[in-house]
Amino acid sequence: MNRFKTVLIDKSALDYPLTELLLDELPDIAHHVISTDEAVTRLRGIHPDASCLPKAKKTLLITRNTGSFLKSMATDPGITDRSRSESFRFEILQGCSMDCRYCFCQQYLSCHHSVVFSNPEDSLLELASSHPLRLVTGDISDSLVLGRLSIVIHDYLSALISDDSIIELRSKCILPDNWHLLKNNVFELDWSITVPDQWRLNEPGTASPLQRIESAATAAKAGFKVGIRFDPLQPERIDKKAYYLILKHLYEAMKPMKPRAFTVGSYKMSCELLEIIRHRFPHNPLPGVEWSRCSDGKIRPFKLTRVYSYRTIVNLIEEIFPTVPVYLSMEPSYVLNFFKS
Amino acid sequence: MRLVELTRDEMNCFNQYFRVEFRQIPHENYPETTPPEGDIGKNSVVSRSIRNPVVAIEHSNNQKPVLISGFREYDTLGVNEKTAVLVVELQELSEAVIEYKRRDINPDNNTPLWFMGAWIIALELAPSAGCTLLELAAFIGKASKTLNLEPELILSICFGKKKDYTISSIVKASKLPKSFLSRLQCWNIDVIKAALLANYSPAERPVATILTCSLFNLSVSNMRKFETLARDIALRSNLSVFQFLKGLRKLVLSTAPGQINVKESTEDSIKKMFLNAIENSGYQTNKPMSSINSERVKHWMYILETIRFPEKNKTKYNFYQFADSLKSDLNLRVDPPPDFEGDTIDVSFQVRSECDLDNAVCTLMQNRNIWRGLLELVQKGKNESL
To answer: What is the phi/psi pair of residue A141, to 5°?
Structure first.
């Protein structure tokens, strides 16, 4: 929790039980109650100057979500695998105090505070009508970035969803010390892992790859279904040896358990995002990668490089975890369907 | 500054108070731009493709200009639509007048005319400069502040209304170091204009812009595109943009068009040649800019692409080389999807008769191995067979 310097609470969110639970966890951090108008202004905020962004990330904003909680995870209509459309983003967390260089939230979000929407009970009607099978909380945030608060939030959320729904947590952090509150029949935990060089270069503030592997192993041994995400892979040709070592380490740490699945993906950027990266981190090599413009308007590393990387990593996974399924993410249908076949 | 969209009725009402001049260039296709921030970013600004600059002047006794409008929009057929006039209320104009008075400059009826004139020039210049009026207006303000120059001087420099401003006076007035002057002496006023238009915060960028523009005789909008490319290459080459462009300039000026065969040169050899050029380069050259013709520009753009996208270009080269083996008298054309993003190949050929068509189908069917290789390359990324 020492990631935050300021905690702002929307006045209208004060009466919600989750707000009280969160405040109980924040005895040592001064918090300020702000008007709803100010909270809305902050949420709608404009893209701040690049130099202000790290400062904005040091603020936690607890407010109400007055809109929809469920957002469909956009998929290319050409993708034939229907199970992909059963996932919904559950908008209880927004933004993140970490500062991954490639993070699309830099462009996607107007507000760069870490935001908790403390009124998930207002989503009950939505949940009842949509009946989502899988809720993802780590799409435009990191599910565990708030440490103990993250567990409190998810524990509270688990009481609201139906028995056959699963909450998928996605993270680059270690397990907080109160993680035992999570129930292994409700939650699935996914860790995004990369090779050490990429971690140092592009993921400052996150847990190291080895720490993430240890957390994944701990969760797996406690009976959780654990997914491993290699996304994004290195943008240039893949460092086969480094990924082999990561997989080997994962195998040893999780033994006798195995991940439920691997998800592999590449960078998916927009020109605006690259411009932000170029502006914020002038020495970062990401903008210099061989980018290609795809039919969905996004830019990704050159297709042949991507496909080569996928093939390499799939072969490595099949070698070390032969029975574990591998999925591709963040790709247009012509790559996904091709790989599926 | 605020843009107001007027309805037809409001427009009629508006005409009672203001004299409106439309600068009619109805078939000019203005570049679409991202709407600026704030309430001026109305959808209608970007939804149409044809826009005309508008100047509006208040009807008053002394014809003192106080209001200038932005764009008049046309539908796609070029028929004007009166209702779509957008008006810029120039708050700054009155501030400028106050500022002039505060400085004890004798105001007369024409006091803000330089400003007005500048706007009219800007309206005319904006399309040819490859930027919008608002961008140009923003530039005037920004350049004035950052270079600590009078806006009038900036405008004179940019639009050439006063010929007596030399480069040295600009440098003196803007308090730039003398070394900068020595670098600038060989560039013409258009280049300075471009540099000022690209008045970005990183210190090296204006210089890089000057070099870029002069090297390739690019318009400002093309220059920006080019600059992004140059920046990427510089990043990959571990060079600063300035170093990169410096070397490139030397290289361009020292080689005749066609002297370097990119297809036969390896990336390393180009890079080596390039790095040598950087080591030996100086800023001054007596070679006139006109000696850099468009063919050479194309050639160097191609080289830049090759350096910037080595894998992509290598694959493209392999693809077309392989596709060449399909050559027949059909004028057959085989293309991969753009950037190889897709899983299909475009094939086109020309026939004059049914017999031609039969022959074409036969020819296409004969080379199954080649088709398989091309499809594998596009779909799987495999190019072992090539």
So the answer is: -160, -175
Contacts of B186 (CB under 8 A, 6+ apart): B283, B284, B285
CA distance A2 to chain B (A): 34
**Bond from prior residue into A325 cis (ω within 30 degrees of 0):** no
**What distance in Å separates the CA atoms of residue B36 and residue B55, rounded to the nearest whole number?**
20
Residues 6+ apart with CB under 8 A from A190: A138, A168, A169, A170, A171, A226, A227, A228, A229, A263
pLDDT digits (tens, 9 = 90+) for A263-295: 999 999 887 788 788 778 877 888 888 888 888
CB of A242 within 8 A of CB of A195? yes
In angstroms, the separation between the Cα of residue A302 and the nearest Cα of chain B is: 7
ipTM value for the complex? 0.81
Whether A285 has its CB under 8 Å from any CB of chain B: the answer is: yes
Residue numbers in chain B where pLDDT is lower than 70: 1-304, 327-329, 381-386
Which residues is A94 bridged to in the sheet?
Answer: A115
pTM of the model: 0.66
Q: Which pLDDT belongs to residue A298?
A: 86
pLDDT at A228 over 60: yes
> Does A293 sit within 8 Å of B341, measured CB to CB?
yes
Continuous segment of H or E residues that includes residue B92: helix B91-102
CB nearest A338 (choices: B309, B340, B379): B379
The tokens of A233 are what? 């892979």
User: Which residues in chain B have Cβ-Cβ distances shorter than 8 Å to A295?
Assistant: 341-342
pLDDT tens digits, one per residue of A230-241: 989 988 878 899
Using CA coordinates, name the residue in chain A closest to B233: A288
Judged by CB atoms closer than 8 Å, whether chains meet at B236 and A288 is answered as yes
Q: Which site among A79, A292, A308, A309 would you substitute to test the B interface, given the most B Cβ atoms closer than 10 Å to its Cβ?
A: A292
How wide is the angle at C-alpha A224 spanned by C-alphas A221 and A226, nearest 5°? 95
pLDDT score, position B316: 86
Half-sphere exposure of B38 (CA within 13 A, CB side): 7
